[in-house]
């Protein structure tokens, strides 16, 4: 299982509809496909999504850090030396999605070599997850129409509503319209991507108090340290740390500092290895987790569901696994299918994914 070559391939696939949220917007999936080759002819695959407004990475920075810093040090190691490889990666600060994609591609290699699925290797709890769909900023009418279409077509009954606009009533009206439209038949929760101040967040929570929200995520910046603690202290539902808790140290700081009471796990930023460590922290501290989405394509989504379905506590809540529906196309030879509101783990060795090489040739940006 000696690693002989690592590819970082930039590609760009347009979105059908721009996804807008408080910290940014996405209109093209300008991701990086990472491939890890071994001397036995195995190829592990994962993808890294650049999110400059969250982690500072760009498509170019991901390719560069992999090509010039990570690949030269990782090549020559066995895929089984994951701890050695983690040590190499963590010698460089930041670059979470580049590190995560490498880690997940290496797990894909290990699964293929052992002829077992990565999800089973990780824990094998179940073979599918319920799906939560993310609704980006729009008018209440448009967001209800989108939610209804997604509900009808895919059976999805959990929606994460992007909030964080000013005045807060813009978003409160959306949540009220969704509740009015669906009644109690759907689960609703909100994600502010740090858009509000602590007092605006508290005001919005008060206004939404009767709307049956189940979670509130990153309503205000974690750097508003005392304000955030004050807010979390009065939040009636678990307050989820997402971009404020991107590694085990930050998870500890946010939870023990009283700035969050739940954690979003995103394989796109912590891979499988570090995501398992974060899951262990959450379980040990007794807080709930949600499988989040880094606005992944289908390759990244397959990684998320492989991890989420592998453990009891990550599969309890619906996972955010549907952002790829907004893309015009994707790279998988066999596209993902959401039905009855669930997404299944791929059977087969490793991550069970195969890239459509013609599509990759079409969408890659480096030729
Ligand atoms: C989310 O849960 O926040 C948007 C920004 C980001 O970092 O992730 C996405 C989704
Ligand atoms: Mg979030």
From TrEMBL:
SUPFAM superfamilies: Enolase C-terminal domain-like, Enolase N-terminal domain-like. One of its GO terms (biological process) is peptide metabolic process. InterPro entries: Enolase-like_C_sf, Enolase-like_N, Enolase_C-like, Mandelate_racemase_C, Mandelate_racemase_N_dom, Muconate_cycloisomerase_anti. GO terms for molecular function: magnesium ion binding; racemase and epimerase activity. Its cofactor is Mg(2+). CDD domains: MLE_like. It comes from the Bacteria. Residues 140-238 form the Mandelate racemase/muconate lactonizing enzyme C-terminal domain. Keywords: Isomerase, Magnesium, Metal-binding. Belongs to the mandelate racemase/muconate lactonizing enzyme family. This is Enolase. The lineage of its organism: Bacteria, Bacillati, Actinomycetota, Actinomycetes, Micrococcales.
